[in-house]
Amino acid sequence: MSSIANFATLIVNDPDFARFAIKPKDALWSQLFTIPCGFAFTSFIGIIVSSSSTVIYKEPIWNPLELLGRFLDEGGSGTRAGVFFISFAFALAQLGTNIAANSVSAGTDLTALLPRFINIRRGQKGYVCALVGLVMCPWNLLSSSNNFTTYLSSYSVFLSSIAGVLISDYYFVRKGYLQVKDLYSARKSGPYFYFFGINWRAYAAYIAGILINVVGFAGAIGRKVPVGAQYIYNLNFFCGFIVSSGIYYLLCRFFPVPAVSTRWLEVGEDITDMSLAYEDSSSYDEESAAGRDPSKSGEVGVLDFPSRKIHEA
């Protein structure tokens, strides 16, 4: 689970980058190769280096910075130059990883949460993300290999529930259909306004996915818990994912959400005009500006006109 949790962040944060893709397949191949192959290669290097340190130094050294220090203790000028370039690569990798996996995601989420007060620069590069990163004292997570792996495993408890809700909503509830213009609208009559701007079904499913692993998480940090809870926690990512996605799907069946399709309706490779997803694209902005309820014109609910126009196209 620690290995899965290592790239669980990128699984959840992929939409921050994939949303710029013009077509669905544009984001497929990059994610298909980058995440599995990239993490598999770096994990393989880590295993080889740690195993080699056991042979050379008679003890496994999991921290690469400590291993570089050992190199300096026994090497000359060539070793120092090699350590410098390796350390520079580590610094560059940390910068790139934090920008892609943490900074961009934090800036995007905070901007969506409080767009009037926080923009992408303030949330991402400025004060909020940097402050939170310092307050959480990340150096304590690297104090030992046990702390680090425990943190990674517990991290996936929360990310798995988010991924489960996202997958269930797009693939099973909405069947690939999204009203793109309404995603950026704050109209109370819009299909994504829900209950005062909050989709309570998603939050309920998210909490349910966390609760299934809470007891096992307590056991991972030293508490005495039932053996069954430990077994569940050993598969925390899959358990959280399945529970949150299943709960969200059931809630949407009993408490339907608007703007869904009865069949798979993702925009395909042959669609280039996104206005085909609307009955009358030219009148959309006029209705919004006039404050009229678009639900009366058939734009909210279980939609049939988008499927008609897209398939006719």
Assembly context of the chains? single chain
Tally of DSSP helical segments: 14
Largest sheet descriptor: none
What's the helix-strand series? HHHHHHHHHHHHHH
The class by helix and strand makeup works out as mainly alpha
The span between the termini is 45 Å
Helix content: 55-70%
Percent strand equals under 5%
Give the helices and strands, then pairings.
Layout: H1 2-6, H2 8-13, H3 15-18, H4 28-57, H5 64-74, H6 77-113, H7 120-135, H8 145-173, H9 180-183, H10 200-220, H11 227-234, H12 236-254, H13 281-290, H14 305-312
Helix pairs in contact: 5-6, 6-7, 8-10, 8-12, 10-11, 10-12
Structure description:
With 313 residues, this protein is mainly α. Helices cover 66% and strands 0% of the residues. The chain has 14 helices and no strands. It has helices spanning 2-6, 8-13, 15-18, 28-57, 64-74, 77-113, 120-135, 145-173, 180-183, 200-220, 227-234, 236-254, 281-290, 305-312. Helix 10 crosses helix 11 (227-234). The chain is globular and about 70 Å long. The two termini are 45 Å apart.
State the main characteristics.
313 residues, mainly alpha, 14 helices, 66% helix
Briefly characterize the structure.
With 313 residues, the chain is mainly alpha-helical.
